[in-house]
Amino acid sequence: MKQNSLSGERRTKVILQIVLAVICVIYILPVLTVVINSFKQNTYVKSETFALPNEESWNGLENFIKGMTFGNYPFWKSVLYSVVITVASTALILVFTSMAAWYIARVNSFFCKVIYFLCVFSMVVPFQMVMFTLSKTADKLHLNTPWSIPVVYLGFGAGLAIFMFVGFVKSIPISIEESAAMDGCGPVRTFFRIVLPMLKPTLISVGILEIMWVWNDYLLPYLVLDINEYRTIPIHIQYLKGSYGTVDLGATMALILLSIIPVIVFYLSCQKHIIKGVAAGAVKG
Fold first, then answer.
1. 123, 118, 28, 82: which is closest to 214 by C-alpha?
2. pTM of the model
3. Measured between alpha carbons, how far apart are the two ends of the chain, in Å?
4. Between 20 and 30 A from 257 (CA), which of 117, 174, 185, 273?
5. How many helices (H) and strands (E) does the chain have?
6. Around Cβ 39, how many Cβ atoms within 10 Å?
7. Which of 146, 3, 26 is nearest to 82 (CA)?
8. How far is 126 from 168, CA to CA, in rounded Å?
9. Which tens digits make up the pLDDT trace of 4-61?
């Protein structure tokens, strides 16, 4: 009986490994396709999309050079705006949502419960439902620049962040904060000196998720920013068009590769923190 159960478990593990391997291949295939086609000439990208580059189709670094020098808008400006928006948005989300989550978890009043459920509800509201109203509101409030659009990202990123932070704060013993209050710490000092360092696992995981979201986001900057003056990397890639709307797919693939490399490296180096943060935030709440 034991041997039969062990063989059944092994068979189940083998099947699961095969299924997971197939899923991994499916997810990796689009990335490999981008890598392969970023080094091929444009005509071969269209005709031999999944073929490896050969002597005839190989284009070297020409696609990268053309993509970064195409048109009259420099690529380095797009990189700069993407970095500014991503860093500022992530910083705002981490600071303000962690403070809000601490207040919600500790006060636990009816008002705080309403705010919490509204934040959770915002996670399931499709962006398409509010995008036109948002664009008009952002114009009126002058939130249509790279220096002010992080405020808009704060509103959209607050739902997930508060949900994760509240769950983690509830797992922190309140006696620690009471001891700090007895030693003369006020609420602000207690949060930044006691609570915030304890939120490190969730801070890292939320920060990684928000960075990946803001860096790759196309629709929100396209609707809010003046695209003739401010272009993020996804918008810059969208405008790699020649006459009559023709698109150089080789140059497009090259810039897509350049844009996803930092995110992939960043995610692979920090993925263990994501798992720890999500698990820590799921302890309570």
1. 82
2. 0.84
3. 42
4. 273
5. 14, 0
6. 21
7. 146
8. 26
9. 555 667 788 888 888 989 998 888 888 888 888 888 888 888 787 888 888 888 887 8
How far is 127 from 129, CA to CA, in rounded Å? 5
Contact (Cβ atoms closer than 8 angstroms) between residue 104 and residue 162 = yes
CA distance 233 to 235: 5
pLDDT 10s digits, 124-169: 888 888 888 888 888 888 888 899 999 999 988 888 899 889 888 8
Tokens of 88: 């500022």
User: Could you give the CA distance from residue 31 to residue 235 in angstroms, rounded to a whole number?
Assistant: 19
Query: Among all chains, which residue has been given the structure tokens 């820590």?
Result: 280
Inter-residue contact 171 to 189 (CB < 8 Å): no
| CATH 1.10.3720.10 intervals, the chain | 72-281
- What's the confidence (pLDDT) of residue 284? 45
Tell me which residue has tokens 């797009």. 78
Locate 162 and state its tokens. 């508060």
